[in-house]
Amino acid sequence: MLPSVSRLWDSIITEPKPSDAPMKYHFRAMRIYPIAIFILCAQPVVALDVVWPSGATQIVARSQSTADFNIATGTADRGGVPPSRSVTGILSEEVWRLPGEGADPAAIIAALRAQLTAQGYDVTFACADRACGGFDFRFALPIAPAPEMFVDLGNFHYLAARRSTPGAVEDIALTVSVGGQAGYVHLARIGEGDTAPTALIPSFTAPNAADQADMIAQLIETDHAVLADLAFETGASALSGNRYDSLAILAAWLAGDRARRVALVGHTDAEGALDRNIALSEARAAAVRQSLINDHGAAADQISAAGVGYLSPRATNTTPDGREANRRVEVVLLAQ
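The structure assignment produced for this chain is given below.
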């Protein structure tokens, strides 16, 4: 079980605002409870642990002992067929229905992408709705049909990933969209050759009462958001951990549209000289940018980095709590 994966479902539940105002999304802090083990093969190599939000329902589960399955490797030009890679092996398909009025496919795919990369899968391709090729893309690929799987051609995400372990290679194709007042996920997993997909361990989240603002919604609404889970050693620019939920979510959002541009801005407290603090804040922003590129596959030309030292505090520098709040990296929206 991933210890921090509960935070990745934060932006799935939406809260409607008045009709003349945009939809606002909210994080829900979660706790994770494993409830079942679904064995797909007799001797799995490494189990796939997928955490779904509370109330998620599996509406399709089927497998084929031998199947050819096409996995997209690029987008479809108008009237064309997307390039793809054919994989032959043991196929497992599932469709999940996720509760929540107006469930956001971008938030769902971000949560799933972070879980996959944390478990050793490499994302080989990702795109969103019109950027994928819309109608041509969706109907050229083996995605479950309605009423099993609903795909809004103007609001869907696709992701392909692969994991290689000793003696086994597994490919995954994810399609996420909405239908009515629910999100839908088509999860196809194929073990190449005669290797069955690894065991799936579905777990579920149960909401706590505390809500936090959704980072992406805040970024869109206010043009900036704090990457609140980042951690640096005192006086150092290197990130002190391996993976951060905020970076996985931001990278997935950037991947959804190549026109999106952001700046990472580092901030410090007021301890020490301004020039040293500016240099430190620039180095921290640059480290975050590099992590987005190297660890999460973000495109370098979508992200810039800068530092302003202690020139833009958000709290007092006279208390420890205030100084801690001022030490941060923010993401600033430049284009969407």
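Interim note for the steering committee: Confidence is low (pLDDT under 50) at residues 1-6, 11-45, 206-213. The first strand starts at residue 14 and ends at 15.
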